[in-house]
């Protein structure tokens, strides 16, 4: 019996049809976790896509029930969007690996079906991919009340590293706030097989990359302050890519090295 498509899959197919992107669902294989789609961004460039949908959790449902019943609810909240992104990366890794077979770029497309209750935003995506936002503060020995911010970086709980989840070429947020869906894509700087931003414009409305030189903090955190992640807009950049689409990248510097020629 054929499974019904989720809302996120329906919206993704609608996006592909609107952009003239050819897509084909990947056949299911018993006892093998596979991704959802093959897409072709031109005649030869094939990309593997896994579509994930964020639905209301039990806590979300309980919160809404308390609101409807007029019960007391917390005045604040702890955002969990970054945690959900990490769980999605964990879940999608084997699916992308089995379907891409080390031959094609592979992306995760995420749709937030909680009507904003997950509070998912762009910083959640970066935190989910590269770790918690971390600051380093220096306390004066002479005056304990004096502090100085000396570092701003990604810290622990990262899911994309030079050694983990390199099959993920990019993670993209699927939005539906107008008449047609749109896609914001976050490229993985540690990727094994690059998805060229020039090619990705076929389906992406925005792309976010880190064009800064990579460095690793002695504690293991990556020195990537958020401002180093630059939005690319269609027609606003010139790219000199040394990492060709479908070319395996073995150096751990990954995509950011291939984008050093970006002019923003």
List keywords for this structure.
264 residues; alpha/beta; eight-stranded mixed β-sheet; two-stranded antiparallel sheet; 6 helices; 10 strands; 23% strand; disordered C terminus
Please tell me the overall pLDDT. 76
Helical element count?
6
Instruction: Outline the biggest β-sheet.
Output: 8 strands, mixed
What is the alpha-carbon Rg in Å? Answer: 20 Å
The structural class is alpha/beta
Q: What separation lies between the terminal Cα atoms?
A: 50 Å
Indicate the low-confidence ranges by residue numbers. 211-227, 235-264
Please provide a written account of the structure.
By secondary structure, the protein is of the alpha/beta class. It has one domain. The chain contains six helices and ten strands; from the N terminus they run αβββααβαββββαββα. The protein starts with 6 loop residues before the first helix and ends in a 6-residue tail after the last helix. Residues 211-227 and 235-264 have low confidence and may be disordered.
């Amino acid at each position: 019996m054929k499974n019904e498509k989720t809302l996120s899959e329906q919206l993704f197919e609608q996006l592909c049809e609107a952009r003239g992107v050819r897509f084909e669902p990947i056949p299911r294989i018993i006892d093998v976790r596979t991704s959802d789609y093959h897409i072709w961004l031109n005649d030869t460039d094939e990309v593997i896509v896994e579509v994930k949908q964020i639905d209301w959790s039990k806590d979300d449902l309980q919160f809404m029930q308390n609101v409807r019943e007029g019960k007391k609810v917390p005045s604040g909240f702890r955002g969990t969007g970054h945690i959900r992104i990490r769980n999605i990366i964990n879940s999608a890794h084997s699916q992308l690996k089995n379907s891409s077979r080390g031959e094609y770029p592979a992306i995760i497309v995420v749709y937030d079906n909680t009507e904003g209750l997950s509070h998912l935003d762009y910083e959640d995506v970066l935190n989910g991919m590269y770790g918690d936002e971390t600051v380093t503060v220096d306390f004066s020995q002479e005056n304990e009340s004096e502090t100085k911010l000396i570092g701003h970086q990604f810290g622990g709980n990262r899911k994309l590293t030079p050694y983990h989840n390199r099959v993920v070429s990019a993670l993209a947020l699927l939005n539906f706030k107008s008449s047609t869906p749109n896609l914001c894509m976050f490229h993985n700087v540690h990727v094994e097989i690059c998805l060229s931003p020039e090619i990705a414009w076929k389906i992406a409305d925005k792309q976010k990359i880190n064009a800064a030189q990579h460095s690793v903090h002695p504690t293991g955190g990556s020195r990537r302050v958020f401002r180093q992640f630059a939005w690319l807009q269609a027609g606003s950049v010139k790219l000199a890519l040394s990492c060709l689409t479908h070319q395996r990248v073995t150096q751990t510097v990954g995509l950011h090295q291939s984008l050093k020629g970006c002019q923003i």
